[in-house]
Amino acid sequence: MHIHIRNGRLIDPGSGMDRTDDLYLAEGKIVSIGSRPDGFHDDREIEAGGMIVCPGLVDLSARLREPGLEYMATLESELEAAVAGGVTSLACPPDTDPPLDEPGLVEMLKHRARNLDQARVYPVGALTQGLKGARLTEMVELHDAGCVAFSQVDAPIANLHVLMRAMQYAATFGFKVWLRPQDIHLANHGVAHEGEIATRLGLPAIPVCAETIALASILSLMKETGASVHLCRISSAEGTALVRAAKRQGLPLTCDVSINHVHLTDMDIGFFDANCHLMPPLRSLADRDALCVGLMDGTIDAICSDHAPVDEDAKSLPFAQAESGATGLELLLPLTLKWAVENRLSLPEALARITFHPARILGIETGQLAIGAVADLCIFDPDANWVVSHTELRSQGKNTPFLGMELYGRTRFTLIGGRIVYG
Amino acid sequence: MGVHPQLNKNGELQHLLTTEGLPAVILRHILDTAESFTGVTERDVKKIPLLRGKSVFNLFFEPSTRTRTTFEIAAKRLSADVINLNMAVSSQTKGETLLDTVDNLSAMHADMFIVRHNQSGAAHLIARHVRPEIHVINAGDGWHAHPTQALLDMFTIRRYKQDFHALRVAIIGDILHSRVARSQIHALTTLGVPEIRVIAPKTLLPAKVERLGVHVYHNMVQGLQDVDVLMMLRLQHERMESAHLPSTEEYFKYYGLTPEKLALARSDAIVMHPGPMNRGVEIDSEVADGTQSVILPQVNFGIAVRMAVMSILAGN
């Protein structure tokens, strides 16, 4: 299949390329930029005038809810949502039912995803059996089955001895450990940021120190074990400062933030809006602003959607009892564009945080727009506006704090390995 | 959202969910209306037909005797049909969701729901969900709000102290877990009380509580100085299990209201308690039963205040 993409604004965040030109794809790869290769016959031409052509988005946290939680979402629904959002690669965390803690489950997931032939799925394996924080999983086996890293997701290990051993063991084989810094005892079943809003609403609160103390432990254990760590969904100003200092010391550390936390604060909870029940909790305005600064200065490498489709019933409960999480695959692009506009960041810089940087963290070759690169592409209209609604969202989860909001940026075509999977 | 959670589009009370953001004019209207009902409660068994033909559902997902009973009495004095549902042992344990329960009861032509739930925001959730002709009264949700308790407290203060603008009020005890304290603070603020104090150990104060407009004290000797109104809070025994406090004995020693500590307040200060009391834990019997205590009148005013709230809602 030879595809000729005409007149698009080509943005390659990795190299900084940003120019309007033609792109030629063949055998699943980018074969030329600008000039038509000899003997290239268009099987398909895409007119991309006024549109942006960039690497497909790479999402570091997208729950697909399989196996076991199909009442919330299925692979079919969520991978369709992914490509509709321009996401071509995604890491799925192991908090399924059962958790991704044995090779058979991972192989099954990979197999199902391959058959659907939509976005590329990179499973993150459980660091401990059943995510219980006690016994290690067979990481090598899981790696061979397709796991790209190991994580506890939202079930932090309480016993630091176990965490140290897990990091040591992962480091033995060069596996990356993905951790969301949160001390389980300090979090104490809280559901909102400890501050004025939680105080007014009478909600059990999670103090910032639940993040910073866990972070300090992780940083010490990195030095002790030599493990390389990716920090998931940091939420606070103080946490960002710790990451900045650790990176200056040269620790092998990367970090992401959820797109929700880039835009929202605990004030958005309003009168107990369960769509704002997220983990980690939405924090204060000062925290959100510090996260944005951290994103701009490179302390935070990537933005993830933290996609978590939740069924209507599980959200129609009092705030603390409502299931946490928000759907996000289809919002990652427009909300990143919104963030870029608000912070006067150039498009290549903003897109780097959802393409090139997360691809490097995942250790995959996509995320660039260069000759010879795999043709995973997102072609979007930056000026197309749409209103987030139940009907617009393809994800089975309609739960998002952004319902009803008008956003700019709509994916027109998504290509994976040179094949049009959306558009 | 954007829609006000408890006022209708004319700015009238549609539900009573919290005292926060409740306009002073509505607050005073409730107190004035309650005043007009005190005669009724004292005249005994004389019914008023304001809620005749209306069905009031007492929806208590958490055990309560006093609050549920006063709501029931108030509704009956207004001639309403009262249906008591003890949800703690009902459909919820059979797996029915909160909103399913509400839908089923709405289908039985409920006009008003009185809701008590252990989760903050439960009454808001129900109020957002029900048909517009149904009114919801929050009878206590988690740690968040207990507006009718706060209103009856305001009624009591007005009875004994008249002018809110000249008062120093202290709220003493477990502020962190108290829906009563939160609702009191907002009501007192709206009614113009210039100085509200909270007195508690740091473990029983929520973060940034000063942002609610209160002065924070950790010491009863300083905190009770020149106070006109003392509002005691109930201490739950589980606070000892969760490392908030070492023992009830030590708590009583430093924060229990004894005659000696009461003597630090103004000589005409009144002592209040939302009940049920733990004698010897947060309050000494001598104070609870003493001349400055207005704890029993509080209970009585509770009926008039709840009649006022129900009749105002039914009229809107």
Automatic annotation (TrEMBL), chain A:
Stretches assigned to the Amidohydrolase domain: 342-422
InterPro entries reported in the protein's UniProt record: Amidohydro_3, DHOase, DHOase/Allantoinase_Hydrolase, DHOase_cat, Metal-dep_hydrolase_composite, Metal_Hydrolase
A GO term for molecular function: allantoinase activity
Keywords, ordered alphabetically: Hydrolase, Pyrimidine biosynthesis, Zinc
Keyword Hydrolase: yes
One GO-annotated biological process of the protein: purine nucleobase catabolic process
Pfam family, one: DHOase
EC number: 3.5.2.3
Record-linked CDD domains: DHOase_IIa (cd01317)
Dihydroorotase catalytic domain residues: 51-238
Any one Gene Ontology cellular component term annotated for this protein: cytoplasm
Superkingdom: Bacteria
UniProt-listed PANTHER family: ALLANTOINASE
Protein name in UniProt: Dihydroorotase:Dihydroorotase multifunctional complex type
Gene: pyrX
